[in-house]
C-alpha cells in the first residue's frame, strides 16, 4: 500500500473514532513516514520543518478570534442577533418548518451566507475571515429556527469553494490562471498541449454543477428536518435581556474598526495585521473596559486555538508526506492500474487527487504535484485540452471539502462551534465530504468524457 493512502486511512479512521484531529494527524504522519521507509528521526525532522507553514494561518485565526470576541463585548453582535430575532417574531414562536415565516428566514439566511462567502473569495478576498465574526451572532437565530447546523456548514463550504473553481476573480485568479492553467501548460508544453486562461472556467463549469447538486441535496433532503440545540438560560426561560443601547458614536467606531481591519488586510495581505488593528481600535475607543482587553484577547485565542493547532499539525503532516516521496509514487503508480481504458483512467486520476488533497488540505497545493504526470497521461488517452483541465482541476479540488485540515471545513466549524454544539468531524467534515466529493467525482468524470 502506498504510504499516502495508508496515512490518510489512519487519519480518517482515528478522526471517526473521536480521536483528536491534531493527534490523528501526528500519528498518521508517523505511520505514513515509517511505511515509506523513513526513520523516526527523519519523520520528526520533516514534520518539524513543515510546521512553519501553518504558523501564519494559526496566528491569523487567533487574532481574528480576538477581534470577534472584542466585537461581541461591544454589544454589536448581540444587537444584530436581537434585531434578527425581532424581525422573525417573538422568541420561541418560530420553529423552522413549523412556520412559513421561519422557513422564509431560513432560505434568506442561506442565500445571505452564500453571497457573503462568494464575495469573500472574489471582490472582497478575505477568505474565511468573515466566518468567526458573522456566524456566532446568528447562532441564536439558528437555534430559534431549529436549523440543522450541518446544512449551514454545507452552505458555507459551498460558498467559499464554488467561486475559486469557476470565477477568475480574487482567489479564483490564483486557482484557475496562476496554478491550473500554468501547471497544465508547463506539463504539456513538450507534448503539444497548450491551454488558455479563458478555457479553465469553461472546463470547471460541469464539475461545479456537481457542487450545486450536492448543496441542493444537503439543504432540501439530508438536513431539512429541525434539529434542537441548547439555548442560553435566559432564552429557555423566555426572559428578555436588557442590554444598553449603542450610541451613534459607538456604532461609528465599530464600523471604523471593521472597515479598518478589512482595508489593512486587503492592502497588506495579512489577516494578522487586520485582526490586530480591529482589536486595537475597539479597545482604544472605550467600547469595552481597558482592563479587560487581556482577558478578551485570551478568550479570542482560546476560541480559535483548536483550529490553529489543526492547521499547524496539517502542515507538519504535509511536510512528512512530501519528504517521503510517496506522492509522486502514488500519482505515477496510478497509471499501472489503468491499462488502456480512458474511462477508468479518468476515475483513477480523480480518486488519487482526492487522497492527496485530503492529506495536504489544500487544492491549491495539490495541482502542481499531480499535473506533471496527469497531463501526459491524459494526452496519451486522447483527452482534449478542456477535458484535461477538468480532470486536473477537479482532482485538485476533490478533498478540499471534506478534509479535516482544510479551510473549507475548519472555517465553518470556527463559527458554528462558538457555543460548543458543533462537532468538527461529524457536523462539518462528514457532511461536506458526502455532499461534495461524491458529486465532484461523478461530474468530473462526465466532464472528462464529454468535453
Describe this structure in words.
The protein is mostly helical. The protein has helices spanning 3-16, 21-35, 40-74, 76-88, 100-120, 131-134, 139-144, 149-166, 171-188, 199-222, 233-237, 248-268, 271-284, 293-324, 326-338, 342-360, 363-380, 385-397, 407-416, 424-450. Helix 3 runs parallel beside helix 13 (271-284), helix 10 crosses helix 18 (385-397) and helix 16 (342-360) packs antiparallel against helix 17 (363-380). The longest helix is centred in the N-terminal third of the chain and has 35 residues, at 40-74. It is globular, with a radius of gyration of 23 Å.
Offer a quick outline of the entry.
InterPro entries: AA_Transporter-Related, Na/H_Antiport_NhaC-like_C, Na_H_antiport_N. It is built from 20 helices and no strands.
* Oligomer type: single chain
Q: What is the terminal separation in angstroms?
A: 33 Å
Number of helices: 20
SSE-based structural type? mainly alpha
As residue ranges, the low-confidence spans are 90-100, 236-241
Beta-strand segment tally: 0
Gyration radius (Cα, Å) is 23 Å
Tell me about the biggest sheet? none
Strand content: under 5%
Q: Kindly state the mean pLDDT as a whole number?
A: 78
Give the proportion of residues in helices.
Answer: over 70%
Shape: globular
Secondary-structure element string = HHHHHHHHHHHHHHHHHHHH
Keywords: Cell membrane, Membrane, Transmembrane, Transmembrane helix
Domain Na+/H+ antiporter NhaC-like C-terminal: 155-445
Transmembrane segments: 6-38, 50-71, 107-139, 151-176, 203-223, 251-281, 301-321, 342-361, 367-392
Protein name: SLC13 family permease
